[in-house]
């Protein structure tokens, strides 16, 4: 019997709702959240248009249009999400952000969500982030990192000082990795080390770690909080993200004075992270003295083993112009696979590269402020394995496709 696509499955569930009941909108919102989580969506986008409300789900990093609703439902659905997350229902002219610690719906699905609203031409757009269950990806061994990187990272977490930098674009799993690192440290050292975090916001509670959330409206930002945290006698500090020169300076100074600092940073590759930090004003000698490693990671969609094949697996690699014609495509053997809903991919996995700044050639290049292209060449000569090289192996073994690697890593 043919299985329905994701959009078709949602449409069937939607028809079962009582459209005339007084609690129709709360039931609709519950259905959206339950179905989105069931189909492994990380985000729900509710976008108002002139004549409708469009709903899209981000599944394995890619947006898919799932349904559209009558335009008059748009303010009611957004208002319901605001009530659930404690936002101001009477303010529709400013962005807002709230959190639902746990929602329960009729089919037993529960979880934690973050709700943000944003004013647009036709009303408020709502974006809902569905956090993964807290029992997933607890430890480094759960992440599926390349074995050499997982072993190297675990060894670095035993250091007493220095900066371990997790890099990558938004949605590449940096935060998940850094939380796994914190749990690894707790497991290794227990109560013998003081571990503190400064986050914006706190996304996951980690037992054994003292966690704090910034409050910019009262002057408690990342840089200010980090300076104060230094006086709390921590052994390990986790800074949610380096966003500005002052926070970067504080983080590296903390490492210089005998703290192990874990933090994330937006950069396209490990060598780009180095050059971006230099551009932020971090002195080369400070990078050289404190930086232990730069890990850059990406999430790639995995070919659905139930229904998919790819033209690029085991065949001739396509040119960039051919890939631009249909980026991210994969040949699904069924347009309505019960496993992946006809998407051709099911789930994502992490791949990564690591830059060791303690290698003599790389250290000298940092001190000389070489640009990212020259630094990459030096790292390659020193034996570094890039993301693209690892991805090529994954394509070869059929775990993902060239189209997917092109979608995530681009052409350069």
Detailed description of the structure:
The chain is an alpha/beta fold and 412 residues long. The chain folds into 2 domains: 6-130, Beta-Lactamase, CATH 3.30.450; 140-409, Rossmann fold. Helices cover 35% and strands 26% of the residues. The protein has 15 helices and 15 strands. It has helices at 6-15, 24-38, 74-85, 140-143, 147-156, 174-189, 222-229, 245-256, 270-279, 284-290, 320-325, 360-367, 372-381, 387-396, 402-409, and strands at 41-48, 52-59, 62-70, 96-104, 110-120, 123-130, 162-167, 195-199, 210-213, 236-239, 260-265, 291-303, 308-309, 331-332, 345-355. Strands 9-8-10-11-7-12-15 form a 7-stranded mixed sheet, with helices on both faces. It has a 6-stranded antiparallel sheet with strand order 3-2-1-6-5-4, covered by helices on one side. A two-stranded antiparallel ribbon has the order 13-14. Helix 2 crosses helix 3, helix 7 (222-229) packs parallel to helix 8 (245-256) and helix 12 (360-367) runs antiparallel to helix 13. Mean pLDDT is 87; it is low at 105-109 and 309-334.
Quick summary:
The protein contains 15 helices and 15 strands.
Rg, Å, rounded: 23 Å
Q: Termini separation (Å)? A: 44 Å
How many β-strands, per DSSP? 15
- Note poorly predicted spans: 105-109, 309-334
Q: Helix and strand succession?
A: HHEEEHEEEHHEHEEHEHEHHEEHEEHHHH
Which class do the helix and strand fractions yield? alpha/beta
Task: Estimate percent helicity.
Answer: 25-40%
The chain-level mean pLDDT equals: 87
Shape: globular
In percent, how much strand structure appears in the residues? 25-35%
What's the name of the CATH homologous superfamily of the largest domain?
P-loop containing nucleotide triphosphate hydrolases
Q: Which CATH-level-2 architecture of the largest domain?
A: 3-Layer(aba) Sandwich
Main CATH class of the largest domain = Alpha Beta
Strand order of the largest sheet: 9-8-10-11-7-12-15
